[in-house]
Design a protein that fits this description.
heterodimer; A: 498 residues; mainly alpha; Cytochrome Bc1 Complex, Chain C; two-stranded antiparallel sheet; 10 strands; 60% helix; 7% strand; B: 322 residues; alpha+beta; Rieske Iron-sulfur Protein; 4-stranded antiparallel beta sheet; 4 helices; 12 strands; 30% helix
Chain lengths: 498, 322
């Protein structure tokens, strides 16, 4: 802690007291790297405190867990579509022809000590990674954290979300089990649906006619473990460097202004909190990996192009695309010697394309619409911007309905209603729900904004009933210690403590 | 590392006072009593015990993990030990930071990112002006360089992209079904006309292409006499055997579920439903076209054979499909 380190730093300069070993090392480093000036600034860097600022940290720490567990998996996984006869420890599969990729994944799961835990942690970390990015992005959106000067960092974040989704899909395709093989088949059809160039793209990406002469697994492997992770790592670096450059945004509060930032210093307070949070995130992922089975590929069986299992569903972050493909009408265009499969192209290519384009452009569109080209470092509360919040809620509702539509068959079975009814309901709901959600959100925001202190009340109310039956309300007594909670005026980080 | 050195930071005052210009403020020593440095915990001693306890739990968790690994315990037990160790250790570290380390709030100034107008103009002059000067003097060289780079980029695309796979050509239009192809199961067993009861179903392939992703075909016996699914297909279903491509015309999944009562094929991926007796026309869901039908015949030995290939390209739509 700083109290202990500071006296050393303070006294060595005049040479009267012998420098400690740690001080000598820092001095040695500074003379070679010039770290003292920037280093001091970095250690004093202020990080505002708010629970919602931890969402991005969850994403970052999930990525670290992905790299560690993923590296473990590469030591055992064989990225090959070569067919072999299974002779491993899982009796029901013995004698079956399976790919080496599949056999090695079963081996990791059932025979490598710690292997199943690592595989399940890896898969859970991927699902949490995408989820944390999505929720973090919602936080940025609804609080206006994307506004000038942070538009570029928003774009970096959108790119990270895209890459996380793509790499997640490619990752769960690697084991070459029945469900993931079906996923690759659908991905192939999606590429094929692109007008003019689709067929050529599919043949080049997948190495020919499906299932592509065994090149898909090795290609997906190098993309999954090297190309995309490296890009993600670089973009995370840029994301964090820009965060340091811009300094963190903050909510309004005592002493917080557009031209300052109030919170805990990086060293030691924030460092301790975030390190602890990293360990806890990893612990939760270990817990999920230990107790919540995910993708038990030995039960699904190896991929055979002519086999399929019932209730096929992708990982959660592909659900909106799957739902869109299910509720899309069969609008294939045929004519002039060509076919455009709009029933695939619109939901699976145009929809995600427009989605991410909209994400990239939003900061610029909003600035244009509101004529607000100023710097913003103080965050909005969602209620303060009813229109933005309503648009965001409506867009979220749209994707939630699409996500729900990826379970049409499950819902029809569960509710004992016809698939037809479920399908048509979703075709209407996907347009109706966003409108309703948007209007309600707008109304709620306007009402809350008009009520000073709404949502801020921390003290309970006591409702008392008199003998005559009348009710009166009075605030409860302050919780012991609440009066001490009055926040201090923020102070400069002291140069030294002593 | 953050903004340019425009911030007026006080230099380390402990350097020799002789060097100090007049008027430098004395070093800012914070007293240990400063409220900003006091622990946030109401009862720091108690919090210290809580943190110590969570570190002890962490030690137990990690030791347990070692023991569980050594004993080759169930994965969930190893995972539990790992999770308990990490969460306890993490909680301890985070609580130490949150409740016992200097909580502040501390403040840092924020400065405009943009430089002064002069700096901006100077930067623009260097970045753009010098380049323009060079190009203006040697415009011809610039054009040649551009042509050189463009040709390189074009040519480089061939080894990097063109080599990735064969060109499609007409290969999506046909499958390995030919006139006279013997109908066999996935394990290569030829199918005889007596093999299926009415209502029975098999996944079949042309002989020699067992398991083929593109030639996979669903064989259904819907009656004991020929069935006409569409005009012009009078001879395609000897003894009530119908054969359709098993690849969904929507996104290419195998149309794997057959409902015998309604005589419909269902694709489990996106719920397209095909009416078998009407020539597998889609009656529900996103599939745009019927499953192509394979004309069958029965040879003199009683085995099922294909009269020809499929009547049209199988599977999902693509641009070149006419």
């Amino acid at each position: 802690m700083s109290e202990q380190a500071s006296p050393g730093e303070g006294t060595v300069t005049n040479g009267s007291t012998g420098p400690t070993k740690a001080t000598r090392s820092l001095r040695w480093l500074d003379e070679r790297l010039g770290v003292a000036h920037g280093g001091r600034k970095l250690l004093d860097k202020i990080f505002p405190d708010h629970w919602s600022f931890m969402l991005g940290e969850i994403a970052l720490y999930s990525f670290i867990v992905l790299v560690i567990t993923g590296t473990f998996l590469t030591l055992y996984f064989i990225p090959s579509a070569k067919e072999i006869v299974y002779h491993g420890s899982y009796a029901p599969l013995r004698g079956q022809k399976v790919s080496e990729a599949y056999a090695s994944t079963v081996h990791i799961s059932l025979s490598v000590r710690f292997g199943l835990l690592m595989r399940q942690m890896h898969h859970w970390a991927a699902d949490v990674f995408v989820a944390a990015i999505a929720v973090h992005m919602c936080r940025i959106f609804f609080t206006g954290g994307f506004r000038k000067p942070r538009e570029l960092n928003w774009a970096v974040g959108v790119t990270l979300l895209t890459l996380a989704i793509v790499n997640g899909f490619i990752g769960y395709s690697l084991p070459d089990d029945l469900i993931s093989g079906t996923g690759i088949r659908i991905a192939y059809s999606i590429v094929l649906s692109i007008p003019v160039v689709g067929t050529y793209l599919a043949f080049l990406l997948f190495g020919g006619k499906f299932p592509g002469n065994g090149v898909i697994i090795p290609r997906f492997y190098i993309i999954h473990i090297l190309i995309i992770p490296v890009i993600i790592a670089i973009l995370i670096g840029i994301h964090l460097a820009l965060l340091i450059r811009h300094k963190h945004t903050q909510f309004r509060g005592k002493g917080r202004r557009e031209d300052n930032v109030v919170g805990s210093p990086l060293w030691p307070t924030f460092a301790a909190k975030t390190t602890g949070f990293f360990l806890m995130t990893t612990g939760v992922l270990a817990f999920l990996g230990a107790f919540f089975q995910i993708n038990p590929i030995w039960q699904f069986g190896p991929y055979k192009p002519y086999k399929i299992s019932y209730a096929v569903q992708p990982d959660w972050y592909m659900g909106w695309l799957d739902g869109a493909m299910r509720i899309m009408p069969s609008w294939e265009f045929t004519g002039l010697g060509h076919t455009i499969p709009f029933e695939v192209f619109l939901p699976a290519v145009v929809l995600p394309g427009l989605t991410f384009l909209m994400f990239y452009l939003w900061p610029f569109v909003e600035a244009r619409v509101t004529h607000d080209y100023l710097d913003h470092h103080l965050l909005d509360r969602p209620r303060d911007r009813p229109k933005r919040t309503a648009v965001g809620a409506a867009v979220l509702a749209f994707y939630f309905v699409l996500f729900g539509a990826s379970a049409t068959d499950v819902l029809a079975n569960y509710l004992h209603i016809s698939l037809n009814l479920v399908l048509w309901s979703f075709r209407f709901l996907v347009f109706l729900v966003p409108v309703v959600v948007g209007l309600i959100t707008y109304r709620v925001c306007v009402e809350m904004a008009a009520t000073p202190g709404a949502g801020k009340q921390k003290r309970a109310n006591i409702v008392e009933r008199s003998a005559s039956g009348a009710y009166t309300t009075r605030p409860a007594d302050a919780h012991p210690g609440d009066e001490l909670g009055e926040e201090l005026e923020p102070a400069e980080v002291p140069e030294r403590v002593g | 590392m953050s903004e340019a050195g425009d911030r007026d930071r006080s230099t380390p005052e402990s350097s020799s006072p002789v060097d100090d210009p007049a008027g430098v403020e004395p070093s800012e020593f914070a007293s240990l009593d400063d409220p900003h440095l006091q622990p946030a915990a109401r009862n720091p001693e108690r919090m210290e015990k809580v943190i110590a306890a969570s570190f002890v739990i962490g030690i137990i968790g990690f030791a347990g993990l070692g023991a569980a690994y050594w004993q080759n315990a169930q994965p969930d037990l190893m995972g539990l030990c790992l999770a308990v160790g990490l969460v306890a250790m993490g909680f301890g570290v985070a609580a130490w930071g949150k409740y016992l380390m200097p909580p502040g709030p501390f403040v840092e100034e924020r400065h405009s990112l943009a430089g002064t107008l002069q700096e901006q103009e100077s930067f623009e002059a260097a970045a753009l002006g010098r380049g323009q000067l060079v190009i203006a003097r040697r415009g011809f060289l610039g054009k040649l360089l551009g042509a050189c780079a463009a040709i390189f980029a074009t040519v480089a695309a061939f080894p990097l992209l063109r080599s990735l796979g064969p060109l499609p050509g007409k290969s999506l239009d046909t499958t390995s079904w030919r006139r006279g192809s013997k109908v066999v199961t996935a394990d290569g067993r030829p199918v005889k006309a007596t093999d299926l009861e009415v209502g029975g179903l098999l996944t079949v392939f042309p002989e020699g292409h067992e398991g083929s992703a593109t030639a996979q075909t669903v064989l259904i016996r819907v009656a004991s006499a020929p069935v006409v699914t569409m005009p012009g297909r009078e001879t395609w279903s000897p003894q009530g055997y119908l054969a359709f491509s098993k690849i969904c015309t929507h996104a290419g999944c195998p149309v794997g579920l057959y409902e015998e009562q309604s005589q419909q094929l269902l694709c489990p991926c996106h719920q397209s439903l095909f009416d078998v007796l009407d020539g597998a026309v889609p009656v529900f869901g996103p599939a745009p076209r019927p499953l192509p039908q394979l004309p069958l015949m029965i040879d003199s030995a009683g085995y099922l054979r294909a009269q020809s290939g499929f009547n049209q390209p199988v599977g999902p739509g693509f641009w070149e499909r006419s």
